[in-house]
Write a structure and sequence with these properties.
Elements: E1 2-3, H1 8-19, E2 25-27, H2 37-47, E3 52-55, H3 58-66, E4 74-76, E5 98-102, H4 111-121, E6 128-132, H5 138-148, E7 151-156, H6 163-168, E8 172-175, H7 184-191, E9 196-199, H8 205-208, E10 215-218, H9 222-233, H10 237-252, H11 256-287, H12 293-297
Parallel strand pairs: 1-2, 2-3, 3-4, 5-6, 5-8, 6-7, 8-9, 9-10
Length: 298
């Protein structure tokens, strides 16, 4: 099993496996084309060396198919977290007003648009944002919140052991990223029972958010975010509870057990493929009246 297809050790491992008739499983999280010309041709050639493929979700599967992987040889092993550590709080929300923004405070996360969208959607000013994380954009985001008139609680870095309680203290999460291969905060928020507004760009969005079921999938622009936030803030207590329960259901679909099953299926498929190839070679050798190298050595 090799992780990706970049770097000399990985490439040598792939060549070693194929030359010795070993099953080769390629595990890849990539979701977007980033190469062209000779590098793209090399990537396609390396992808074709594998017998089977492991991906965390649909976007990664589509990318593997675009690189030449057979659809039937692709297996899903979702990125996962400890679902016992992250769990819903025993409470209800009269109105989802505390909106979580969680991650590095960098432009690629698109937090500024999220804050501006909250200002557009929440004319009454009842909603607030809880910003978890640190980064070079913190001062700019503080200024953005002040300028937009949005109440923002910047809690800074949170130790992982303390993160579940911080998430449980919020009513929903906004994940407006412009560039995330997955986004583990989606696992953590949905496991904690938070409805989610998530950018369609993140690899984890299609696996953990279902439009209208436990949140909304949006384009990461100010208007689309604001429209979804209006729907979120308009949820009744019972509607919020239904979405909270739905989020937990979505999170459980990305369990450790599902991930292990995906890897085992891919490994078994690669093993069966190589066993079939070896069997075919042996049959051909017998038909030609040849003996295997092992029998000759005897």
């Amino acid at each position: 099993v090799v992780n990706g297809y970049s770097g000399l050790p990985v490439i040598l491992s792939m060549i070693w496996a194929r030359r010795r008739g070993r099953g080769l499983v390629l595990w890849s999280e990539s979701i977007r084309q980033r190469r062209s010309g000779p590098l793209l041709l090399l990537k396609r050639a390396l992808v074709r060396l594998a017998h089977s493929y492991v991906v965390p979700g649909q976007l990664a599967a589509e990318y593997m198919i675009a690189l030449g992987a057979p659809t039937a040889a692709i297996y899903r092993a979702p990125n996962c977290i400890d679902l016992e550590r992250f769990a819903p709080a025993e409470r209800t929300a009269a109105s989802p007003r505390r909106l979580l923004l969680c991650g590095r405070l960098v432009p690629a996360k698109n937090w500024e648009r999220a804050i501006e969208a909250v200002a557009i959607a929440d004319a009454s000013g009842e909603a607030s944002v809880v910003v978890v994380g640190t980064g070079p954009q913190e001062d700019a985001l503080r200024a953005c919140a002040a300028r937009a008139g949005v109440t923002a609680d910047f809690v800074g870095h949170v130790e992982y052991a303390d993160l579940p309680s911080v998430i449980q203290g919020c009513d929903a999460m906004i994940f407006p990223t412009l560039d995330d291969v997955w986004g583990f905060v989606l696992n953590e928020a949905t496991a904690s029972g938070l409805p989610v507004i998530a950018s369609r760009i993140a690899g984890g969005t299609s696996e953990l958010v279902r439009d209208g079921f436990n949140g909304w999938i949006v384009e990461p622009d100010r208007t689309s975010l604001a429209e979804a936030i209006v729907k979120l803030l308009g949820l009744s207590s019972s509607e919020w509870k239904r979405m909270s329960e739905a989020s937990r259901i979505m999170a459980e679909g990305c369990s450790v057990v599902r991930a292990v099953e995906g890897f085992l299926d891919a490994i078994n498929a690669a093993h069966a493929d190589t066993a079939e190839t070896r069997s075919g070679r042996l049959a051909s050798a017998r038909w030609l009246g040849l003996r295997s190298p092992r029998s000759r050595s005897r």
